[in-house]
Amino acid sequence: MATLQVVTTSRGRQAVLDADIQGLKLRVTHVAAGSAGYQPSASATTLRSEFVRAPIAKAEVDRDRYQLNLSAAFTGEEEGWIREIGFFAEDGTLVWLWSSADTALGYKSAPTRFLVGLTLTVTDVPLGQIEIVDQGQPLDLAVMPIVEESATATAALAAAAADAALLGMRRDDEMSALAERVRRLEQIRSQDQIMTERTVTAAVGGQQALIDDLALASAAGSETLAEVLRAGGQSGLVMVRQYNYGGVDPWYRPITVGYSAANAHDHANSARVCGLAELAMIVNGWYIRTRHNDYVDNQPAQVGHGFLAVREPPLPSVPASISGAGSVTQQVAAMRDLIRRAATGSLTAAEGAYFRWDLAYAELWWEVMSASELVDDAFFSPRHRADDGSTRALLNTVQATNATGAKLAAENNPLLPIAVREVRKGATVAVLRYRILTQTVGTLADRSVASMVEHVDDPVTRLRFGAGGTPLTTAQLQATRRARYRLKTPDTLMQMVPGLDGAGAVLRESYLDQGTVKMIRRYGTADPLNAAYYSRLASLPSIDASGRTNFRRGFNDPTLWSALTSHPNVVGYERDGETYRASWAIPLELLLRTPLEGWNPYGLPLREDNTGQPAVTGDGIEAKPYTGYHPQKRYYLTPIELFAGAEVAADPADTSGGTVYVRDAGGTTRAVKASGMRIILPPVDDGSGGTVSLRTRYPVYPVYHEGSPTFIELAARLELGA
To answer: From CA 369, how far away is CA 432, in angstroms rounded?
Structure first.
């Protein structure tokens, strides 16, 4: 039985693949012979000189050796030298081809039945996907080719010629054995490549479908979790880092009031810095835990300045009645009187204009995660930044500390959730970002303290910090940093806060609803809402299914403010051909900015290098005074004579310091205090033998738990006295 190294034609290979895709096998049924000798090509579709064709008589498949053993009987009147052999599928497709220009398999004469037995080596298509359809006729083909019927001399000559050709072919086979092995290895490699490509194509298709399903499930899961959190409370702070203050009763566990409300503290030795520790908050159902914040009073930049652009507002001005009062002693007396009357609510409208209200707020959004997974701090703090620069590294740190219960000293390991968000056009992986900024919302001239905030009674904190089992009174609590407040007109103030597009942006909010584009309106009006600013209340242009037009943001969240943005960095959600991108915000603190922050009656010199960095020398003690001041950590300008007492309820977290010594431009050493923002200013003489203190930071954050069904029930029972 002769062994032939055949060529699989391109159409044959495709026919095998097509059959496999359909779950079928390619049926090979016939063998044909021709007289043309040539180098076979995969592009062939027919034999060049076919003169005889017959069905396959018997077939055996040896998949381990990549071989097919075939036999057939050529009959009929056709005759000629057999120099090409073709193997055809049921539909007539030429699958395999062998030919040789200088070798013949034998001679087919007219009166004889020519029996052939062939072993085909096939390595570039999978034999398992091929079905050889034979006639089930066992033939004795031990010697191939042979002449079974030699009735004439012509037949005998043909048999002799065939025998001679066979001997020549065997010699050729022996001489080319090594070459054929090389070719076989190459064809095995080719077959493996084809199989790999087919496997990869099928696997990729299946894996992509699985990936799409998993992305959908992940997005639905995270949204469902957010929905559960929405139902359990309201947008607001969840907790602060604990600091133990004795006691095992439940109220000794801090919720949002630790050593102070939201663990706020003073860094008045730096200009424009508000000390604020780590926070955990849930806003619109999304949980996030921050780094140590210590934010500055940066405000949103004007529209068009870029994503997350901010501007630095000026410090409050000093009234001319103080800066032009004459000597330092006279300036101190005038400033003391101004602070006293601000604390007692007796300022004139002109004086009140020098006291500015800034609203500090937390802003959250889902940001498309970059391929590098890098994530910079979204807002500036001169004191803190995240421990790591990538979402993966941050998560690793959080997992490690959560697993061990350890605490890192710098408190800069935020938990920034990662989730699959928009899935309509493929899965978008996003990271939840936040920042803390401020927005000017008025002055004491038009908004008094009483019109801006009201105190929130906090029985837990009063119990926790009472002495000898006696809780603090409400008045006692208000005199401390632990007091909480709420905004009296939160919507009026929050609607002054621009979203991520920046100050001055205008965005309209509309939806395709029941076949009509409907634009959201300002609450209770027919005017279109500017969705580029934060709103909690809005109105529909027509009644809803419940017969109403006015609504609050969210399904049932009383403290959620939302704004639209056009920035592509923010995850977009598509509906009816429109893309919606949004951020959310809650108020944190109401800051009362005072003329004290920029007051420099001694004319102390600013010391910085050509890059703006501090160039202050000295130790700040009387023997080695500072050589000047700088806004970063050396912001000491206020004469000690202004105050009548020490810092109010100072905390170990503070860095404001006590009395510091600074040399003025003339070389005289001055005793001064820090001039930056404080929660409560040190007391000043009230003019009648006592003292009065001015609070300049009012925590006005909503608390997540106070939107829970349990809290609501408890509040109602307390109100009813039940």
So the answer is: 9
Chain center to CA of 432: 6
Cα–Cα distance for residue pair 47/87, rounded to 1 Å: 10
* Side chain identity at residue 150, one-letter code: S
Residue in the structure block whose two tokens are 């809803």: 544
Reported for 220-227, long-range contacts at CB under 8 A and 24+ positions apart, including other chains, are 222/419, 222/420, 222/421, 225/285, 226/284, 226/285, 226/286, 227/285, 227/555
Angle at 298 between CA 296 and CA 302, to 5 degrees: 175
Query: How confident is the model over 339-383, as pLDDT tens digits?
Result: 999 999 999 999 999 999 999 999 999 999 988 888 889 999 999
CA 458 to chain centre: 37
Number of other residues whose CB lies within 10 A of the CB of residue 409? 5
pLDDT range class, residue 139, cuts 50, 70, 90: low
Report the DSSP pairing between strands 310-311 and 299-300.
Answer: antiparallel
C-alpha–C-alpha distance, residues 543 and 550, integer Å: 9
H or E stretch at 121 = strand 114-121
Helix axes 10-21, 177-232, angle to 10 degrees: 30
Q: Which amino acid is at 542?
A: S
What does the block give as tokens for 348?
A: 């004139």
In angstroms, the Cα distances linking 504 to 362, 531, 569 are: 20, 11, 20
Look up residue 361 and give its amino acid. Answer: Y
Residue type, 288: I
The residue type found at 511 is Y
pTM value?
0.73
| CA 373 to chain CA mean position, Å | 8
Dig out the tokens for 230 from the structure.
């929405």
d(CA 192, CA 190): 5
d(CA 673, CA 258): 26
